[in-house]
UniProtKB/TrEMBL annotation:
Its main location: membrane. It is a single-pass membrane protein. This is Sec translocon accessory complex subunit YajC. It comes from Zymobacter palmae. One of its GO terms (biological process) is protein transport. The chain crosses the membrane at residues 20-41. SMART domains: YajC.
Amino acid sequence: MLDFLITAAHADGAAAPATQGSSLITFLPIIAVFILMYFMVMRPQSKRAKAQRELMSQLAKGNEVVFAGGLTGRITKVVDDYVKVEIAEGTELTIQKNAVIAVLPKGTLKNI
């Protein structure tokens, strides 16, 4: 069962030369684990990061947004890595762009 991990001993005592096929079979499970890890962990994580960067780059004045803490508001000003958000009339907060988790459809805040 585990013959591919142990080289076969010959009766004359000379070691058999390793063939290219047997070394490939030896490393095949390790290669398969790395491929599986790429598709299960690394690729989805990079897709989420790309989507978050696109969301942050598309923020504009007038967007209604939800922040990581559940706070909702309307963007009044975008400055570098920060946005000014009006959460109530006359109440503005300055929040980092990366705290934005979603952009709401227009008019959502009036219905809440």
